[in-house]
Amino acid sequence: MNFSSLPPGSVTASPAPPVIVDDFQMSCRFSNYGDHPPEAFDSLTCGTCFFYIFMLLDHYKNRYVTDLCEDNSGILICPIDMNMDFCTCDNRSLVYNLPEFALNSSRITPLNRLDLDPPLPFQFELIVKDCCSAARYCCRNTLVKYHHRHDDSPCPATWDGWNCFDSSDEGLVVKQCPNYIYGGTNVKTDYDRHSKKLCQSRGWDLPEKTGGMKEYTDYAGCMQNDDAEARLLAGMLTYSASVIFLVPAVFLLNWLRPIRYQPMFILHRHLLISCLLYGVFYLSTATLFVVSFAPLSSQVYQNHIFCRLLFSIQLRYLRLTNFSWMLAEAVYLFRLLHTAQHSEGETMRSYKIICWGLPGAITFVYFVVRGLNDDVGMCWIENSTVAWVEWMIFAPSLLAMGVNLLLLGLVVIILVKKLRCNPHLERIQYRKAVRGAFMLIPVFGVQQLLTIYRFSNTYYQVTDQSLNGLQGFFVSFIVCYTNRSVIECLQKWWNSHQEKSALGAECRQRMSIQESGKLILKSPPLTEHVQL
């Protein structure tokens, strides 16, 4: 949808003729629609609010015919394949508006009974109501006052369909973009977005793109979302890199027999699988729902159950499994260093049940509770507006990170004590211990404590997304590609492969020699007989 401008002429019918208002009567100005009494203004602007917010979307404007009724009662909405003889404002079942803003509620159908394909968002009525209330407030507090005072400004106070503009002198007038224009897509105005309207000596700008007949407001600035695009690009690149390196790492830890059943490498393998699944889901959901021209973007707009399920798996379940397996790594390493015991036959079944099962139970409860208490939002990509519901995910995550930070400190203390107890160790061993502790930071996920509070700064958000996306990349290098045990197993496998290849070549050579010898020793056939 292109919000660069809002020409009211995009409605199928031409604007309603201005209503003649007595000079002593209160009047509110609606750009391109003239002056109207407050009650008629409320009804007309509320219908246009719904039109501008929702009916300009491609999946609606290509399926429905819309028109503003001349009596300002509401907006006419008909399926495009409907017989146009019945698509008139006289058919009140097809005229919609919010009853509390309509001129005559008996002459319209309440907007909450409107059934479109695809369905409107659950909260669409509240979004429209915000816009209608803003128009009413503009009328009572700005437009009426202007109507009854002498003002030499060339541009009169007006409501443009989304925003309220006071009377202005020549120049560019800038207004902050209201949240309701985004249709509930959770785009916030804290990005300092603004719309622009040009005031000239003869009045509000009538650009050539509107045929020089209609006032124009530039809303292109409201749709600039460079920070979100940069964050999405950073996420796509970093998670792609992590997935590329995680796939071989998971394969190696599962394929190398000497380490396949070692408890530490079982933990490593499951942590890598968790990171891999999160990366795959991130790339899948971004491709299906988020990027430009995503095939299922309409489901996000509808808050469809399918995308809610996918985003819940990605943003809640797999995120919790990441934290649980990082916690398992920290707990096992601390237990190993503290007790100095290593159980070769340990199957890690309890770790598997807890680290995969507990996040699943928490996510299921979250899905049910949020569905009952906060079943709105665009596929639950954003956090719930009910704080305690979202803390069902926040609390376990913060607890895991806090415990990991504590265990990391204890691991460093244990390493230092062990080194001090051995006077024969060189100073370089201390540096190795400190370096090893720093390498544990991405494995334990402690670095996420630094980005737990997200600032609105673009560079900060891109850095935060990049660190999250590259965690799988760093973990795969630490626990697999640079791990001494993995490297030794690969070297042994390669040497064994080389020996088998050499032995096979030697066997083939010997067999070839033997076959050649048999041919030499074989007697030639007797072809002639000697006669005496």
Strand order of the largest sheet: 3-4-5-6
Helix-and-strand structural type: alpha+beta
Please indicate the count of domains.
Answer: 2
Percent of residues in beta strands?
A: 5-15%
Protein name: G-protein coupled receptors family 2 profile 2 domain-containing protein
InterPro entries: GPCR_2, GPCR_2-like_7TM, GPCR_2_extracell_dom_sf, GPCR_2_extracellular_dom, GPCR_2_secretin-like, GPCR_2_secretin-like_CS
Pfam families: 7tm_2, HRM
Membrane topology: Multi-pass membrane protein
Which terms summarize this structure?
disordered C terminus, single chain, 11 strands, disordered N terminus, 2 domains, three-stranded antiparallel sheet, Rhopdopsin 7-helix transmembrane proteins, 532 residues, alpha+beta, four-stranded mixed sheet, G-protein coupled receptor
